[in-house]
Structure formats: structure tokens, C-alpha cells
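Researcher: Please predict.
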Amino acid sequence: MYVPTHFREERIAVLHAAIRQIGLGALVTLGPEGLIASHLPMVLHATPEPYGRLCGHMARNNPQWLAIAPETETLAIFSGPQAYISPSWYQSKHKTGKVVPTWNYVAIHAYGKLRVFDDPERLLAQVTELTKIHETGRPLAWAVSDAPEDYVQIMLKQIIGFELIITRLEGQWKMSQNRSREDRHSAADGLRRETGPAGATVADLVTATDQNESNRSE
């Protein structure tokens, strides 16, 4: 991934937190017939250090797992908050007119070797963990054990588990860092004023990134 220096995010804790929050990733592999991608929920574990590992599962009928080459690198892409940035929001538009539209976004790429498995006990542990992560905090949280055991066993036979040991981790937080502080503030204001909740989330990231940049320069 091409990442200009001022957009680069290298702090592992920040990258891990974003992956966990996003949850759904695009798993991209290269097989004999070319590239194939599946959009799958994944669980991030912090070990092995430094980058950790991603765990998930896909349908057994998905041909992707059959075409995985053990020695070929796999890519998992996580896309975070994103929003269009209008040049009309920049204060510099009124001063010079030298502005163009852009897009702010968060993107994380995790690379590594992929391994697949179909051991029932391991699959059960994995789907139980995934379910617990996303059900925790709900008033009527659902658990895998709520379903009949024979039904669960049937469902486990219809999936394939995978584990991606991360060997390279890249993050891009494109949040107007290449603009003046005045333009960053006005872009955040425009997002909050003219866009919905998704845009407001990006505005918060622009503001937070601006604050982080200020702290680093002090």
C-alpha cells in the first residue's frame, strides 16, 4: 500500500485497536486462477508478537480455501471510517482558490501466510469466541450453546477455519494532515455540518489527528 509519510500509522496498539473495532475484513489470496477475495469477520490476537494473528472462518463451499498456496503471501484489508472532503470547506479556498476535492479514510493492510483447518473442536472454540465478542453487552446476548448441539455440529461441518500469522502491518490514517491547521479545522466543521454520523466520525478523527500532531511537535 502506498502510504505518504504524513498519513502513515505505525503504532501497533493503534492498528490493533482499529482492526478490532472494524471487525470485518477482505481476505485476499492468490491461486492458480488469479486473485480471489472474501469479506469475513476476523478476530485479532496479539500473539505472536510483534503483529499478532487473525483468525476466522469461511464457508466450506467457498473455493478460496482450496486454492490457497501455503508459501504465497495473503492480504487482509480492513477499511475504517471514510468521507468525501469538499474543497469548499477549506479556509484556503477563499484566500488562494488552490484547492481540490479529496477523500479521508482509514485503511489497514495485514500480510502473512494463511493456514486453514477443519478440526471441529478448534472451529467450535473459534466461532464461540467470535460470537462472544459481538454479543457481549447486548441485553439478551446469544451464545453458541443456545443452539441445539447436533445443529451446531452440522453447521461446523459447513465451514473451514483459517489463521493468518501477521508478518507485515501497514496503516494509513488520511485525515487532512497535509493541510494547514486552519483547513483541518474547517474540514472537520464541514463534515459535522453537512454529513451524517459517518462523516462526524471522520471529523472526530481529523480533530484527534490534529491534536496528536500538535502534541508531537511540542
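Model: Residues 192 and 200 are 5 Å apart (CA to CA).
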